[in-house]
Design a protein that fits this description.
The complex is a heterodimer of chains A (160) and B (548). By secondary structure, chain A is α/β, with parallel strands linked by helices. Chain A has helices at 34-39, 41-44, 84-95, 113-118, 132-135, and strands spanning 3-6, 9-12, 16-17, 30-33, 50-54, 72-77, 101-106, 123-124. Chain A is built from five helices and eight strands. In chain A, helix 3 links the parallel strand 6 and strand 7. The longest helix of chain A is centred in the middle third of the chain and has 12 residues, at 84-95. Chain B folds into four domains: 6-109, Alpha-Beta Complex (Sulfite Reductase Hemoprotein, domain 2), CATH 3.90.480.20; 134-288, 2-Layer Sandwich (Sulfite Reductase Hemoprotein, domain 1); 305-397, Alpha-Beta Complex (Sulfite Reductase Hemoprotein, domain 2), CATH 3.90.480.20; 412-546, Sulfite Reductase Hemoprotein, domain 1 (2-Layer Sandwich). Classes of the chains: A alpha/beta (160), B alpha+beta (548).
Amino acid sequence: MPSIIKDQVIIVSPFVTLSVADANTSTANCLLPMAYYIDHHATLRNRQDIGIWVTAGEAVEDIAAYVHQLAVIALDFPHFGDGRGYSSATILRRQLGYQGEIRAIGDVRRDQLEQMQRCGINAYELAEGQDIQSSAAGLAGFSFNYQASIDRPAPLFRQR
Amino acid sequence: MYIYDNYDQTMVDERVNQYRDQTQRFLAGELAAEEFQHLRLRNGLYIQRLAPMLRVAVPYGMLNSPQLRKLAYICRHFDRGYAHFTTRQNVQYNWPKLEEVPDILAELASVQMHAIQTSGNCIRNVTSDQYAGVAIDEIEDSRPWAELIRQWSTFHPEYNWLPRKFKVAVTGAREDRAAIQVHDIGVRLVERDGKVGFQILVGGGLGRTPVIAPVIRDYLDKEHLLTYLEAILRVYNRFGNRENKYKARIKILVRAMTPDVFAAKVEQEWLALRDGPDTLTEAEINRVKACFSRPAYADLTNDPLVLVSALKENFAFKAWCSRNAKPHQQAGYVIANLAMKATGVAPGDVTDEQLETIADLADQYSFGEIRVTHEQNVTFSDVRQDELYNLWQALCVAELASPNLGLLTDIICCPGGDYCSLANAKSIPVAEAIQRQFDDLDYLHDLGDLDINISGCMNACGHHHVGNIGILGVDKKGAEFYQISIGGSASNDAALAKILGPSFAQEAIPSVIQKLVDVYLTRRESDEQFLETYSRIGIQPYKDSVYA
């Protein structure tokens, strides 16, 4: 079970990510590939211990009908320089109204955590070799932000 | 100009601390080189051929005199006594030390400056018309809108890791001096039925695949500017190509989707964002507009006697005025341009002492403010006509009175192979050789408007595609060669130059340019400018002359 930062605290998550090859409907406490979940929704829909993971190229809108049944939605960052997950997180929160855990997985590093947090990601499974203790400092962002974001829904100009 | 409040200053100060921490972690071996590369680029620091290069943001080109003096101080204490004005209205230092960059940033922050997002795959410094607020052909001052875009794009969490760099330009005038048709997003203030709003262009650009941007929305009400830009950025962030960096700019996406389909996709995305929290309020628009209010102009009339007689008596002054002075909205005032294109000096280069002189002269003659232009020159936007002659004399002493604005020798030029590790070929010596070939001022004035743009490689920092004559450095089996193109323009009639034919060795360039100019002089009718003659007679006569 992975150690993650969730809501600013380091915890051990019961949810384990299953690859496309390992995906099945019987493992408890797992994150399944989004496409697999959609295909097996009829079997999985009443399970409380299931989440999904979404690749950077997948459209989170495809899961719109089911988001409220999911305990965790993990977004995969194939490389820290690939920013598609930031839009996916924003759409999940703002457009699809998802309230559960959004977890960043893949190439997740300290200096991106603050931007992820601002887009509504609230849990982080760091890349291999990254020190989770010191990386938590990466969540400390700027005192103010100009534009609206998930963590600060009003832009700065509305306070000026 | 825009003055920081406590919010703006706090963010810039915090960014200095954040970058200092990143630099220290890198130097301590705690941050991998590949990761630090992306982080330092987002703060304008490149590692170049000889040393790091630091690009400092000059939002829409505006600087005040304390900022100019600070830039001079940085030249002297952290660099080698000079800086460089870029083709995107920014300032670059060619010799900073990586470990000293946080200190340079702290110096910049003390005068409300920074290097935020001047490189990297994020939204870059926004550019605009250097004559904004004073141009006689203006619909509305573009600077408040450029500043609103600057703030919205600064540290935007969703768009810090785009497929590729992203550049926005804004113009509020009828003549496009901001080259908006060759930007990722071009924003043009337009009037429709008595109401002023924006026309939005997306997907222009130079580089490997030059494209003139299509209009994707003909009219947008002002309050929607930021949410609409957000919709464009989101479509790009999600669907732009991330596999191949040469196909990653938004122009490729727009072209692949077709402009109509792209526009429809943006409109659909906008439905979710429209009227959301980033919708601009009247109060915010007015707050930012108030920063760009007109300076305390004196009550004057045009063509004062002192100017009229100086023009009569001094031919050199008259020649300088005919090119470098431009009409102003306010009676009795004039726009004065300093062409930073003296022969023998790399285009755009400026010394610490010149920066201080410019600061002093700006205080004395132009309300303490200047603008950097995308042609790498400097504009004094508010000079009294009755003081123009005095200003010119002071500029002569400082060797800043080149009377060649917009002439053939006012060459736009990237740093090229002398500095840049991307370049295929040098560009500065080519510019100098051309300036030496064309050293007769009367002849140059007779030639009139003629842009020569030089890029050392196909990344096109010297905007060669939109030069009336474009020169591109190419690598030919390890040797530096130059491809010549003709007929480009970055203005309202934006056009991409056509390649003349096989490339030339460096020594041949001045004589090739001479042949092109000779064709123009032989074939021009009445008062046709270079580009007009080209449009009429086509490329063949130029080919025939050059490859005869």
